[in-house]
Amino acid sequence: MVVPSLKLQDLIEEIRGAKTQAQEREVIQKECAHIRASFRDGDPLHRHRQLAKLLYVHMLGYPAHFGQMECLKLIASPRFTDKRVGYLGAMLLLDERQDAHLLITNSIKNDLNQGIQVVQGLALCTLSTVGSAEMCRDLATEVEKLLLQPGSYVRKKAVLTAVHMIRKVPELSNIFLPPCAQLLHERHHGILLGTITLITELCERSPAALKHFQKEKGTGVVPQLVQILRTLVTTGYSTEHSISGVSDPFLQVQILRLLRILGRNHEESSETMNDLLAQVATNTDTSRNAGNAVLFETVLTIMDIRSATGLRVLAVNILGRFLLNSDKNIRYVALTSLLRMVQSDHSAVQRHRPTVVECLREVDASLSRRALELSLALVNSSNVRAMTQELQSFLESCSPDLRADCASGILLAAERFAPTKRWHIDTILRVLTTAGTHVRDDAVANLTQLIGGAQELHAYSVRRLYSALAEDISQQPLVQVAAWCIGEYGDLLLEGSCEETEPLQVEEEDVLALLEKVLQSHMSLPATRGYALTALMKLSTRLRGDNNRIRQVVSIYGSCLDMELQQRAVEYNMLFRKYDHMRAAILEKMPLVERGGTQDEEIKESKEAQLSEASLVPTEPQASELLDLLDLLDGTSGAAQPPPPLEPSPGAVLVHLLDLPCDLPSASPPPAPSWIALNAFPLFQTSYPVLWGPGAESQPIFYAFLLHWPFSAPQALSPKPFAISSIPNLRVFEREGLQLNLSFVRPPGTPALLLITITAINTSEADVIHFICQAAVPKSFQLQLQAPSGDTVPAHSGLPVTQLLRILNPNKAPLRLKLRLTYNHFGQSVQEIFEVNNLPMETWQ
């Protein structure tokens, strides 16, 4: 006996009555079998009922693909009941990935031309849901005709279908431009809202359409939109579409969005809508969420168009009121919008600084992060003390996720707007004490350079750092700075004469014990131990007592597993054993360092490179394998002649001890120089700069790798062993705030050698990370590319990244240079390859 097929209502009741999933699957499988049998029999009267049941099964997640062709048959049927279910099935079972959807194109075209509104509505709904690019191109003309039909029901659906077509095929914009101006005169809410959405899509996807609608006369729509919005604000448009006392907020929001697009970078349109925007901003009720939505869109429109200054101040004040709203979402939107406006309307946003600072105490992490970003953007020279105090209080209580951003922001603000050096030092010390593990990598170098350049604050700084180190040795950047400062100015610490701090009596044994504690702590990084070991070594010339304790500690690390520490300990031991008479001169204090601007740093880097390279032998061809880098240049034929090697000198004992390639001109041991200038390289770097002492022309040249603190010697302290030829600097690259400058030096002793210092500066708001610079020259040259000073170029014109190129040009041929830059900026990977052909003639003649 054949079980009869169930009706749709009975099928729903039976499926819902199934107690287990297995029972549900059994019911559906039986009914699907009946549906398949009915489709095979070709029963035209009950086909729509069977397809309706299949669509319900599809909505439950079961396969229903075998009903696709039945949808096409029902759509082609003349009966409305069949078409209704057929179109519904097409919208659910068909999509652009299946070729079957193209088979309904003719059926939709016929139904659009029938003249029956309900059938036209079904066809338009299906076309706007599953219409592919091919279908849109074939049916665009029919839809354009329906836009001007007398019935509002069909016109509303035709407008929405036109929006779908423009999104699929922007090239169809010319077809729908003429009806838009006429449709704006409609009083029907749905048609008007759809028309504004259609014009918005046309303007966003077609520059020609944007110019078409921006015209002042004829096709310009700005006056019409202004009139519609003014009617909504003053008299109301339709009471049935009002929400919480706000007249049709959805239509207002859409009009404001379209006005924002039309007024962007267009002076005439902006002037037309200025008065209206002021009226909307002042008359909209803010007690309801619908009014807040309209106000927010008004603010966005004022920000994007060329609005008047007073109007922009009004927009900022609206956002300031949003900050006082109890809704977290509204406060977040206000903070985000103010952050966008802070660059263009800084003074207006500054008025709401107290409210922004209050938002730092928000429990919600997203709100506090936005408030932190805005607070950092509001810091300037007039409020830096108050804002820094608020930010430091926030740093002490904020979540770990925000500490890195907050600490970096405070350090950058202090560097840019510090009123005094002492305040700057105190601010950095407090940040390092509170969140030292979260600061940027260059914080240690910046603070040591700052302290080194403030001679009047040496005693104050070393006492503050010693006290902070005695309380906590877990913050590694703080420990590194403190160790450096104690090593340099330990004698000032022991004197105990500092009027700016409380009296502090420190004994030599206490200082040594504290540094030993740092060396033995399991929290100390290898770099931190290196700072502490070097500080102990420097204290050996500053303490009045016996150095046996220091020698014992240094000798212990001569067998350390860490290669860097072991190397330093062995070198220091050698100083104690064989060169004790030179130890006092080598371990002298760092010279004062004045922090200059970017141009001064470039000049300093180039001159230091010249002093360094003047005594170095040009590299052998084996060291110049970078000349064919990436095969970027096709060089001229001919091989460069290597320079003659310098004769070894028996007096180079110290240089061989330090394992450095330096030539000593005199065989007799010279007297120790009275001072040694150190260069700015991070601790334990593999490339070491040259040190110059008095009488550098006849004295041996010492290298500072024993003691290279993160400092740079001032140019006034470095004697010039030869005259430097003046070659102008050259800027070769600039993009999104990243600049690349070249400075040149040609040592007179080796005229074939050219030293090029590449300096990378970042003036943008975001750091440039993973920065790599590679160079190539023609094959007639020899090129050696030294290691860069870092791979991160800090934002806001922070410390630049420098890299040295040594180019040997024995034939004095015109120099061509090709550079390849790879880096990450604003979250995007960038690669640039360019050739530098405009090098000054002095670089090769």
Automatic annotation (TrEMBL):
Q: Which domain of life does this protein belong to?
A: Eukaryota
Which Gene3D superfamilies does this UniProt record tie to the protein? 2.60.40.1230, Leucine-rich Repeat Variant (1.25.10.10)
Q: Which InterPro entries match?
A: Adaptor_Complx_Large_Subunit (IPR050840), AP1_complex_gsu (IPR017107), ARM-like (IPR011989), ARM-type_fold (IPR016024), Clathrin/coatomer_adapt-like_N (IPR002553), Clathrin_a/b/g-adaptin_app_Ig (IPR008152), Clathrin_app_Ig-like_sf (IPR013041), GAE_dom (IPR008153)
List keywords of the entry alphabetically. Cytoplasmic vesicle, Golgi apparatus, Membrane, Protein transport, Transport
List the membrane topology term(s): Peripheral membrane protein
Sorted alphabetically, the Gene Ontology cellular component annotations on this record are: AP-1 adaptor complex
Per the record, the similarity remark reads: Belongs to the adaptor complexes large subunit family.
- The protein in question is named AP-1 complex subunit gamma
What organism does the UniProt record list as the source? Nyctereutes procyonoides
